[in-house]
From TrEMBL:
This is MFS general substrate transporter. One of its GO terms (cellular component) is plasma membrane. PANTHER family: MAJOR FACILITATOR SUPERFAMILY, QUINIDINE RESISTANCE PROTEIN 1-RELATED. Keywords: Membrane, Signal, Transmembrane, Transmembrane helix, Transport. InterPro entries: MFS, MFS_trans_sf. It holds the Pfam family MFS_1. Its main location: membrane. The chain crosses the membrane at residues 72-91, 153-173, 193-216, 304-327. Residues 1-23 form the signal peptide. It comes from the Eukaryota. It is a multi-pass membrane protein. GO terms for molecular function: transmembrane transporter activity. It comes from Auricularia subglabra (strain TFB-10046 / SS5).
């Protein structure tokens, strides 16, 4: 709400940074919740549903046309309040270190006000004590171990390139269409985001279903642990042309992003929030750099060559990563599994000396 009365540009930028800090953590918490409540065989579909945010620029264009840009922040504040109310009222704690498989009684301060989704039992899960981390373990968690894994870093970089291309496309749609089609209003420009958003929605949902089906096809079962050897695009054309390409682009970009996010969560079981935070860091840093340069590049190179450059960058960054992870991924996971086994065998002998 502090954004709405602002006229100073620098203060608007600072407050937007604060807003982004809050929204980024919400994304991480959302993906972390998915890893808590869903098995690897179910995550693809849920991640696809959680990736439907690109459809909202449609509403943003209509709000900017009728209420000004401040109307966007009013609606954002209202939606945030509604979501926060729902979280406080009904969302139970899902962190497995606290509630196990969901049946363990959680502390009073973590219980929802309206426990509609809460169910406790008196089985073995309820009787297990809470796992408490030592200070050394908390300090080590600040630099997650998965950031030292070659395949994880490769996937995070590839995902960041695809995400940056999507953000560059979304940021350039308004100026490109307003320049090429002067009869468009803010509302109709917002509607022009519909193909991109619809493609993103279909790509996310369809890829989620495909990911779950492929997981099962290769022998993965719901609830089962993943074994180390498991096989894991110039205005002046008709307006319909860029909209059709936006749809195709939205679907073709979000599908691999969804797959990348799913495999990252599978490579670091139990660390969904940390994985998503690291993924957001990679994606937002690269996106900020590209979006900051996209307008200057468009004026210098032209719209067509700009997207040739961006798509070429995406291909160069994504294809080698897919080949590398496909060829070396199982071997790297088996090596990490052997290292964990050696560590678990060595520690008891060390303590007995």
């Amino acid at each position: 709400m502090a954004l709405m009365p602002q006229y100073a540009y620098w203060l608007l930028v600072v407050l937007r940074c604060v807003q982004s800090a809050g929204s980024a953590s919400t994304v991480s918490i959302g993906y972390g919740t998915i890893t808590d409540i869903a098995t690897p065989g179910e995550r693809g579909t849920l991640i696809g549903i959680a990736s439907l945010g690109p459809t909202w620029p449609i509403l943003g264009g209509a709000l900017a046309d009728h209420s000004g840009w401040r109307g966007i922040f009013w609606s954002t504040a209202a939606f945030s309040a509604a979501v926060n109310a729902a979280l406080v009222l009904i969302l139970p704690e899902t962190l497995r270190a606290i509630v196990g498989n969901g049946g363990r009684q959680q502390p009073l301060y973590l219980q929802p006000l309206v426990p509609l989704l809460t169910r406790y039992d008196n089985g073995a899960d309820a009787s297990q004590p809470l796992t408490k981390k030592t200070a050394a373990e908390v300090f080590k968690a600040l630099v997650p171990r998965f950031l030292k894994q070659t395949d994880m870093l490769a996937i995070l970089t590839s995902n960041a390139c695809a995400f940056a291309l999507f953000q560059a496309l979304a940021a350039s749609i308004s100026p490109v269409l307003l320049e090429g089609y002067p009869f468009l209003t803010q509302t109709t420009v917002g509607l022009c985001f519909l193909p991109l958003g619809a493609g993103a929605a279909i790509g996310s949902s369809a890829s989620g279903l495909v990911l779950d089906r492929e997981f099962a096809r290769f022998g993965g079962t719901r609830g089962a642990r993943i074994s180390p050897g498991f096989p894991l695009e110039r205005a002046r054309l008709h307006l319909a042309a860029p909209l059709v390409f936006n749809f195709i682009t939205g679907a073709s970009i979000t599908a691999p992003m969804n797959a990348h996010q799913s495999i990252c969560l599978d490579l670091a079981p139990g660390q969904g929030t940390s994985v998503t935070a690291a993924s957001n860091l990679f994606r937002c840093l690269l996106s900020a750099a590209i979006v900051a340069a996209v307008d200057a590049l468009r004026r210098k190179l032209g719209t067509g060559w700009l997207f040739v450059l961006l798509s070429g960058m995406c291909v160069i960054c994504v294809l080698p990563v897919l080949i590398f992870v496909g060829l070396r991924g199982p071997e790297l996971r088996e090596e990490r599994a052997r290292r964990r086994e050696d560590d678990s065998e060595w520690q008891p002998r060390q303590s007995s000396v």
